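Possible regression after last week's pipeline update?

I re-ran a chain I had predicted before the update to compare outputs. Posting the input and the new output here so someone can diff against the archived version. Not blocking, just want to make sure nothing changed silently.
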Amino acid sequence: MRKIAKYAKKDINRLLKDAGIIRSRLKIAATIENAKRFIEVKKEFGSFDKYIWQFVGGKPIHNKYETPAELPAQTKESQMMSQDLKKRGFRFVGPVICYAFMQAVGMVNDHTTDCYRYHEINKR
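New output (post-update):
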């Protein structure tokens, strides 16, 4: 994060030529800005982990969806996370993106109840 937070105009120009990434000036600038904000959050809370888990009370939410159609695109928790991240200067962190992040890192168990992983995860 510290390295990315120090990126300057020459780094942005280099990245805009990199065919291996999404070459959007706005997204590249947001990534650099988000790295700076990440460092600030880490200083304030001691870790980003401590900060981010506050939105689910420090433990995963175990939903009980029976079909994929029931899965929400966002929740009140992801909306609160998005609002707070934006207040802190983060960019490209809408509630749908935040909910996808929450699913990816295990803050929510959105496996359907007939999935073997649903029951494995709920045992923890």
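Follow-up from reviewer: compared with the archived run. Residues 1-46 form one domain. Marking as no regression found.
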